[in-house]
Design goal:
With 58 residues, the protein is mainly α. The chain contains one helix and no strands.
């Protein structure tokens, strides 16, 4: 009985570990996407600033 219970706990812990690893991968991918989006928005912002003040800033 104890061994069966122990194996059940090990399986649950292993499932939780795999689940967390998968979630981390998903979040890492999302972070990369958001970073690219941020960089693109910063580039657009800089282009708009140049259009507003084509002579540059003081």
């Amino acid at each position: 009985m104890e061994e069966e219970c122990f194996m059940g706990v090990k399986e649950v812990l292993n499932w939780a570990k795999v689940s967390l690893e998968n979630r981390k991968k998903e979040l890492d991918e999302r972070a990369k996407e958001l970073l690219k989006e941020k960089e693109e928005l910063e580039r657009q912002k800089e282009e708009l600033r140049k259009e507003e003040h084509p002579w540059g800033t003081r």
